């Protein structure tokens, strides 16, 4: 009876808020879309409001914005060199979107946008698409040198190139799976432990006393999730920088 | 304490007005050196403590990273093979070859993200330090 009330997967259900159907395609405005809009709104509003005073000596909130800026720009410069800074708006937007989406997902009753693989895969496909398009634009067919390692015997080359191509294609998959799996697993664990608190306290006085243990666990997990939210946004941005480096300097 | 650098250890017998700035600099220098020395004694401890605490979380992250790299290689290899099978009707050979190649790519991904194998397109050349 208590089991059907505590459904750890229920939080990931997509609910249509405003049904929209254009030309046979379902383009409804869902709760996922709502939280994407909220994510963009929160991130933009935060950055805009905290930097609007433009004081030379930054206040607390302004220095948070400046830290985020410097953090991403240093990361990009380390991974892709100064040439990579032309991708700064792209990487910074990605970083802020993933970070704010992860953080918003930590609020109770909020929807976690990044816990759906199609969202994270969309972001990763955007990254790899940028890498491929920019690589071919800048280097032409020389971009294909990326798949040909130096010093490989000619008779092994077809095999090695095939494996390198698969390895390249698997990058967006591993990038998106990592973010999605971390958020999904974290939220399910959190929900399960919180569910234990509810189920146990229904058992009477002993249950209420015993429910302190899962409650403590849930508190600890929330702290861990906060760390994971930052870490995964960071990892996503770092890997984006590394892949952009391949587009800028293939064959190095 | 390093009294050689103290205000009295400057070798001056008297404190003329013209030496006051020098003496103040000297004093500042000594205090800065003291601060640096005491910071240097504290810094390694702090870093070590941080490492020990962060190592389990970092290890978890590393494990997840490597396993996702490996699985992604296999999934993409199998997916490509399956897709070719569907297009060309060569079932099951595309799947088999794709699985094997995907396995190879997965191993390559893991070794690459562990930093054992050179990055994309680098081969055995040493990396350009300016990039």
From TrEMBL, chain A:
Hydrolase keyword on record: yes
PROSITE patterns, alphabetized: ATPASE_A
GO terms under cellular component: plasma membrane; proton-transporting ATP synthase complex
Membrane-spanning parts: 33-51, 87-111, 117-136, 148-170, 190-216, 223-245
Pfam families tied to this protein: ATP-synt_A
GO molecular function, a single term: proton-transporting ATP synthase activity, rotational mechanism
Main localisation: membrane
Keywords (A to Z) from UniProt: ATP synthesis, Cell membrane, CF(0), Hydrogen ion transport, Hydrolase, Ion transport, Membrane, Transmembrane, Transmembrane helix, Transport
CDD domains: ATP-synt_Fo_a_6
Bilayer topology annotation: Multi-pass membrane protein
Subcellular location: Cell membrane; Membrane
InterPro entries assigned: ATP_synth_F0_asu, ATP_synth_F0_asu_AS, ATP_synth_F0_asu_bact/mt, F0_ATP_A_sf
Function: Key component of the proton channel; it plays a direct role in the translocation of protons across the membrane.
Membership in a protein family: Belongs to the ATPase A chain family.
NCBIfam families in the record: ATP_synt_6_or_A, PRK05815.2-4
Protein name: ATP synthase subunit a
From TrEMBL, chain B:
Any Pfam family hit: ATPase_gene1
Domain of life: Bacteria
Biased composition (Basic and acidic residues): 14-53
Start and end residues of each stretch annotated as Disordered: 1-55
Biological process according to GO: proton transmembrane transport
Transmembrane segments: 63-84, 90-111
GO CC annotations on file: proton-transporting ATP synthase complex
UniProt entry keywords in alphabetical sequence: Hydrogen ion transport, Ion transport, Membrane, Transmembrane, Transmembrane helix, Transport
Function description: A possible function for this protein is to guide the assembly of the membrane sector of the ATPase enzyme complex.
Family as reported in the entry's similarity comment: Belongs to the bacterial AtpI family.
Protein name: ATP synthase protein I
Organism: Mesorhizobium amorphae CCNWGS0123
């Amino acid at each position: 009876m208590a089991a059907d009330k505590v459904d750890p997967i229920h939080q990931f259900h997509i609910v249509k808020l405003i049904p929209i159907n254009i030309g046979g395609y379902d383009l409804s405005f869902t709760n996922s879309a709502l939280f994407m809009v909220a994510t963009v709104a929160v991130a933009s509003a935060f950055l805009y409001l905290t930097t609007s005073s433009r004081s030379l000596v930054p206040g607390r909130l302004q220095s948070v914005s400046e830290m985020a800026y410097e953090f991403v720009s240093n990361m990009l410069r380390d991974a892709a060199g100064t040439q990579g800074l032309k991708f700064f708006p792209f990487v910074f937007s990605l970083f802020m979107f993933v970070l704010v989406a992860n953080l918003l997902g930590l609020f109770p009753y909020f929807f976690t946008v990044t816990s759906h693989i199609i969202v994270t895969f969309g972001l990763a496909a955007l990254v790899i698409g940028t890498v491929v398009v920019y690589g071919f634009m800048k280097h032409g067919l020389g971009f294909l040198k990326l798949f040909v390692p130096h010093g490989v015997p000619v008779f092994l080359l077809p095999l090695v190139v095939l494996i390198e191509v698969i390895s390249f294609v698997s990058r967006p998959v591993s990038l998106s799976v990592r973010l999605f799996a971390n958020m999904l697993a974290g939220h399910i664990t959190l929900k399960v432990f919180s569910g234990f608190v509810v189920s146990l306290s229904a058992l009477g006085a002993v249950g209420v006393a015993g429910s302190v243990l899962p409650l403590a666990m849930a508190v600890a997990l929330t702290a861990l999730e906060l760390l994971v939210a930052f870490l995964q946004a960071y990892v996503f941005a770092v890997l984006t920088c590394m892949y952009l480096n391949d587009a800028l300097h293939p064959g190095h | 304490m390093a009294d050689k650098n103290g205000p009295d250890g400057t070798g001056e017998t008297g404190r003329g007005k013209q030496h006051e700035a020098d003496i103040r600099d000297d004093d500042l220098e000594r205090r800065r050196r003291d601060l640096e020395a005491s910071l240097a004694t504290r810094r390694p401890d702090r870093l070590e403590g941080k490492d020990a605490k962060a190592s389990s979380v970092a290890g978890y992250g590393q494990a997840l990273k490597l396993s996702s790299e490996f699985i992604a290689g296999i999934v993409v290899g199998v997916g490509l093979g399956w897709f070719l099978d569907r297009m060309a009707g060569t079932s099951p050979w595309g799947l088999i070859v794709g699985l094997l190649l995907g396995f190879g790519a997965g191993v390559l991904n893991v070794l690459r993200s562990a930093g054992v194998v050179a990055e994309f397109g680098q081969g055995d050349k040493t990396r350009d330090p300016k990039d």
